[in-house]
Design brief:
The protein is mainly β.
Length: 763
């Protein structure tokens, strides 16, 4: 059977062995691309149960594990039985982008030269298996063999031990099954502290997520929300399939901890009848009780070595110590005089630390719970401490405080090694921290993630900035030869993003104080934004600084703004349409007889289209410093949600709440050109491609469709982010494959080719 698997450059491989029975068992492990397994149909009987797993994985890879038992008596090498359902847990640091390589494994038997890309299924007395880039091994008939041993798999420094039962047989069907390799699952490394652009989003919680923790195996994440739901979901697949869901108590989950074998979970928070629970991850069965507190429990952690210990911290100013499993309350620790915000065991399990709103950190013995010391004497910080994190070698501790500093402590000598002062404003308070291998991170109240530099405490290595509230609008503008995306959020912040690298920052100074509803860039390079703070702002995109100038106060709350040549801008407010000229109000239409929602200005600057909740678009002409109603009404299929002129001014696209996009031909007197259907919910935004042949629409169905103007049946579908409905769209370059960005979601990437993806409607 020709598998058609290419032999390429060598990759990381694993080896291990055990002694027992009449011989020595050895194993080898390699990697094989999941997509190749699917396309060539290489799954044998023992792997068919994994097909669902395979089909769900996108860019992750699978390893192939083959086990052989070498005989000392000259009987050849025997494959181990299929009763080895080996599913080795490999750390996320395992290389994931590897190609196929077969491994040469020498036994005391005859070798035969055959093509490297072929393998034969075994007969009754002969089994052929490809083991090298040039050779096939032929083994003699199998003998019945039973053995029970502990298999140790070593991969990239990671050792995993699982008891397994090994068996063999002589029948043809048994041979076929036994020769089938076990699948070795490798987590897809979708997130990275080295490159924060490698990130993923889990969107299946119905309520705000408070905490998420990796299982020590790396294959699952447990996340908890404000409703008390705990979801355990897969990290190896792009879809992040749900494994289990529990409701340990009714109320906000504030912290989660796993045992080192990834089999038990402790959850604490704001329950009504109880404040914590500890249970088996795969059944929900209780493995103890979390008691000893009379108020909300803020934090929990479990010692990552046996004998297990569990510690909690609560709003009752106490920590509690537990032994188990089953976990039972041992005693209360009352050293703090304010809320205990965080408890953490050291990785080696020898110590645990508690941090409190009283600014103190105490160190305790990890096995007995006896107090060892208080870091820094009376106070570790001048403000409350919200988080602590141990170094991998268990000798140092990182702390984050409301005094706007983070500190590194040498626990062995009870002294401060570094103090990181993050700023002087309220938003610079430090709420969280993480010591991840060589990376030290802290989180500010602003939502920024700081990469701390031990060699230069005065300045972070980098700061990851972004929006902490939903993005409501965006626009794109070229500045200095680069395309930048400008995004405005629900809390009034405006950020700018490099469309190539994803690097971003916020505007300096004090800007909008409420939701940014719409933004655009005028011909002078000014960012024009309108906000629910009843202002329209003009901001210089070279300085990216709110100077306090260029602020136009509106009489009514603005909803949308559009700009035209000659310094004109038209603002749609609640019950009002306002014309601006050179950053000043010059004309307004009060109570126009309908509720205006959106506006677009023709590229020539002489015509304005205003869409209303009554399902109509009305046309106005700009005459000097006035707006004239042209008496033209264009009918949409429902309440108008967005309007957009093509860049050449030849077409006007109108989308509505009835899930329809209608395109009007400007040259033909705004006659209806075409109607586009496809969305399954309200359409909220439009954007034209610079080629004027394609446009995109985004809706509350979390979909972006890219349409071809001349053919309503040809469209490309892009699945949006299910966190938010789409609220704004912009095109970065021409053509159906040009990058597009959307907000609500903020998405950038090349689009599929309609012809390549079937040409017709994708739904």
């Amino acid at each position: 059977m020709d598998f058609g698997l290419p032999v390429r450059t060598p990759v990381l491989w694993a080896s291990g062995s055990f002694e027992g029975g009449t011989g020595k068992c050895s194993l080898v492990a390699g990697h094989i691309c999941m997509k190749h397994l699917l396309t060539t149909g290489c799954l044998g009987p023992a792997q068919r149960g994994c097909r669902e797993f395979l089909e769900g994985v996108n860019e992750s890879y699978l390893g192939v594990l083959s086990l052989f038992r070498g005989s000392r008596g000259g009987g050849g090498a025997q494959p181990l039985g299929s009763s080895l359902p080996l599913e080795a847990h490999v750390s996320a640091r395992t290389p994931h982008r590897v190609t196929v390589q077969y491994f040469e494994f020498v036994f005391s038997h005859q070798w035969t030269e055959v093509p490297a890309d072929r393998v034969g299924y075994p007969g009754p007395a002969t089994r052929e298996l490809l083991l090298g880039t040039r050779s096939i091994w032929k083994a003699s008939a199998l003998n019945e063999m039973q053995s029970s041993q502990k298999v140790t798999l070593t991969l990239s420094g990671l050792s995993l031990e699982e008891p397994r039962t090994l068996s063999g047989g002589t029948r043809d069907q048994q041979l076929l099954q036994e020769s089938t390799e076990a699948l070795l699952r490798v987590p897809c490394p979708t997130a990275s502290t080295l490159n924060p652009a490698l990130a993923d989003i889990y969107t299946e919680h119905a309520h705000q997520v408070v905490v998420a923790k990796y299982a020590p195996s790396g294959f699952y994440i447990a996340s908890g929300d404000v409703s008390g739901k705990l979801r355990i979901w897969d990290t190896t697949q792009k879809e992040h399939l749900l494994k289990y869901e529990y409701q340990p108590f009714a109320g906000k989950i504030k912290d989660i901890a796993w045992t080192e074998d990834s089999k038990r979970i402790a959850v604490v928070g704001e329950g009504r009848e109880k404040f914590g629970a500890v249970f088996l991850w795969d059944s929900g069965s209780s493995v103890g009780e979390i008691t000893g507190h009379n108020k909300v429990i803020n934090s929990v952690d479990i010692k990552q070595s046996r004998p297990y210990r569990l510690a909690t911290g609560s709003d009752d100013n106490c920590a509690a110590f537990f032994e188990g499993p089953p976990f039972k309350f041992k005693f209360t620790i009352g050293d703090h005089n304010r809320f205990v915000n965080c408890v953490r065991f050291s990785p080696d399990g020898n110590r645990f630390a508690t941090a409190s709103a009283d600014g103190q950190i105490y160190i305790y013995d990890g096995k007995t719970g006896e107090k060892v010391c208080a870091l820094g004497g009376d106070k570790a910080h001048d403000g409350g401490i919200y988080a602590i994190s141990w170094s991998p070698d268990s000798t140092h501790l990182l702390s984050a405080s409301g005094d706007k500093t983070s500190k590194i402590w040498d626990v062995n000598v009870n002294s401060v090694v570094n103090t990181f002062t993050m700023g002087s404003t309220v938003l610079d308070q430090q709420l969280g921290c993480l010591w991840q291998k060589d990376h030290l991170l802290s989180i500010s109240l602003s939502g920024y993630i700081n990469y701390l530099d031990k060699n230069n405490p005065s300045k972070p290595l980098r700061v990851i900035k972004g929006h902490s509230k939903s993005i409501q609008c965006l626009t794109v503008h070229k500045n200095g030869g680069k395309s930048y995306i400008y995004s405005g959020s629900h809390d009034g912040h405006i950020n700018y993003w490099d469309s190539e690298t994803g690097e971003n920052d916020s505007f300096a100074g004090k800007g909008h104080t409420n939701q940014v509803s719409r933004m655009t860039v005028d011909e002078s390079g000014q960012l024009v934004s309108c906000s629910m703070d009843d202002t329209v702002r003009y901001t210089n995109l070279t300085l990216r600084d709110y100077s306090g100038q260029g602020v136009v106060k509106m009489d009514m709350q603005p909803k949308c703004v559009a700009v035209g040549p000659g310094g004109y801008a038209v603002v749609v407010c609640i019950g009002q349409i306002v014309l601006l000229k050179d950053q000043k109000k010059c004309f307004s239409i009060d109570n126009p007889g309908y509720e205006p929602e959106v506006v677009a200005v023709h590229p020539s600057g002489d015509m304005v289209a205003v869409g209303g909740t009554d399902g109509n678009v009305r046309l106005y002409s700009i005459l000097g410093t006035t707006l004239k109603d042209e008496g033209r009404v264009l009918e949409a299929k429902g309440p108008v949600t967005d309007v957009a002129y093509s860049h050449d001014g030849a077409f006007l696209a109108v989308c509505d709440a009835s899930k329809v996009v209608t395109v009007f031909s400007v040259a033909d007197g705004y006659s209806e050109n075409n109607v586009f259907y496809g969305h399954h919910a309200k359409i909220v935004c439009l954007a034209w491609s610079p080629d004027n042949e394609h446009f995109a629409s985004g809706g509350m169905d979390m979909m972006v469709y890219v349409w071809t103007l001349s053919d309503p049946e040809t469209r490309v579908k892009i699945q949006g982010d299910s966190c938010f409905c789409l609220s704004s769209l912009e095109r970065l370059s021409p053509g159906p494959e040009g990058p597009i960005c959307a907000s609500g979601l903020l998405f950038c990437g090349p689009l599929p080719d309609p012809q390549r993806d079937g040409g017709r409607a994708c739904s």
